[in-house]
Amino acid sequence: MKFYRSVIKAMKETTWPTRKEAFNDTSTVILTSVLFAIFFAIVDFAVQWALKFLV
């Protein structure tokens, strides 16, 4: 029971993000993911193009 009491105590002390903060953080993650996907797609196409000339 000590474990459950400590979990409840920790949850009460936790500060949760506001709706605006959660939206901003989620937007940042999505934007970063899209930018990385575009970057890796460009690198992939460049490597494929370069390999065409070597083979």
From TrEMBL:
GO biological process: intracellular protein transmembrane transport; protein secretion; protein targeting; protein transport by the Sec complex
Transmembrane segments: 29-51
Entry GO MF terms: protein transmembrane transporter activity
Superkingdom of source: Bacteria
Listed Gene3D superfamilies: Preprotein translocase secy subunit
InterPro entries for this protein: SecE_bac, SecE_sf, Translocase_SecE/Sec61-g
Cellular component terms (Gene Ontology): plasma membrane
Localization per record: Cell membrane; Membrane
Major localization class: membrane
Keywords on record: Cell membrane, Membrane, Protein transport, Translocation, Transmembrane, Transmembrane helix, Transport
Membrane topology: Single-pass membrane protein
Family, as annotated: Belongs to the SecE/SEC61-gamma family.
Oligomeric form and interacting partners: Component of the Sec protein translocase complex. Heterotrimer consisting of SecY, SecE and SecG subunits. The heterotrimers can form oligomers, although 1 heterotrimer is thought to be able to translocate proteins. Interacts with the ribosome. Interacts with SecDF, and other proteins may be involved. Interacts with SecA.
Purpose: Essential subunit of the Sec protein translocation channel SecYEG. Clamps together the 2 halves of SecY. May contact the channel plug during translocation.
NCBIfam families: secE_bact
Identification of the protein by name: Protein translocase subunit SecE
Organism phylogeny: Bacteria, Bacillati, Bacillota, Bacilli, Lactobacillales
Protein encoded by which gene: secE
